Amino acid sequence: MKLILTKYIERFRKSYLLVLALIGTIACDEFVEIDLPETEIVAESVFQSDGTATSAMLHLYTEIHNTSSFAGGGQNSVTFLQGLTADELIPVSNTSEFFFLNNVLPITPEVSTTWNNCYNIIYGANAIIEGLLGSSGVSQEVSAQLEGEARFIRAFSHFYLVNLFGDVPYISTTDYRVNATASRMVSSEVYQNIVDDLLVAKALLNDDYPSSGRVRPNKGVITAFLARVYAYTGDWANAEIQATEVINNTAQYGLTDLNSVFLIDSYEAIWQLFPVETNNNGNEGSTFIVVDAPRFVVLNEDLFNAFEEGDARKTSWVGSVTGGSDTYIFPYKYKSLDDDPESEYSIVLRLAEQYLIRAEARAQQNKLSEAISDLDVIRHRAELPLMVDTNPAINQSSLLLAIEQERRVELFTEWGHRWFDLKRTGRTDAVLSAVKTGWESTDALLPLPQNELDINQNLTQNPGY
Question: Boundaries of each RagB/SusD domain copy (predicted)?
Fold first, then answer.
């Protein structure tokens, strides 16, 4: 990690800290894109005004979108790679076939890319948190907003690290001397740190979004992510509480028709990533849509067949193209290509997930009728028969499998949900060994990058590598 973090220190200083020339054009209530100059400014000056401090935060979002691991459906993204590792996508070329075959190695480039990307973003968040401490030039209101956002980004990045790699260092400083020798922290402690950061962030942030659109976190974003984290750690009571808070916020969030879910102005969106380039869309459409023949991946036939008859999501969110004697099926949630008029942002958090989280949390607490009600909200939008009518006496274990199935067809090719669901419920072996040749239990975790092990002797490799 020393190599990564020391290298990133200079790059980060030369990017988000170089914003003084933009003071006159940046307003705290607008999300603007930043073209960064090439000169260096002392870090302390960045946190001497609301405008420059906010600019540092905005640049961090630019970094997130530029980061291939978080860039929507790009070929190095969690959506793409973990769609291959699970049972959602099939490669049509050699692109990332190691992930589809679950034959990833410590030297596989995408492994290092994912690790580096996450920790680089974490470093940026830590730099903002530290820069705000003791700053006299940033107002209390703006400081609270920026610290809340930075803590959320730090928690968000660690969440993906712990789910991909297992035990990982939880980095909360920019001191490379500390980071260079950091050891792996057990997953339960990583999650506790994530929760701690999110609770602080929730207390700091307001109900209103701090900018136009839903591209910078508000209290609702933190609450929704807390619900997910509590569900992943089996804290079902708190998962239900947090999800309920989001669901009850009907002034800001509500389910939309299926073809409006992923639009820029989606009422269902809780947190979106904005495209870095103006008049552009996210990466999902350009990666997944098949025009003549697939470039990268097609939808796994097992997923295609998992939809119930009459499921409107299959009609609205799955596309097909016939070329010669072949018919290709592909994810069609996002319907715009890169060069189409701007209409879609990459959605990271949305309301449907909150209903499914609450359904699972209630089922786990044996509140079966309430869980069925939540599940039926999602099924009703999909134009499927309601469970309360067809199977009201379902038992707990069968209901949990029904929720897993609903998550599969609702959240497919979105931020690795299917892969993480199989892992957190202990069902990777049962499901993937049946559809993947050579599947091994140790494939559930990625290997730590070999270059990190070479640099930091306090890191250890995952079993099976």
Answer: 321-465
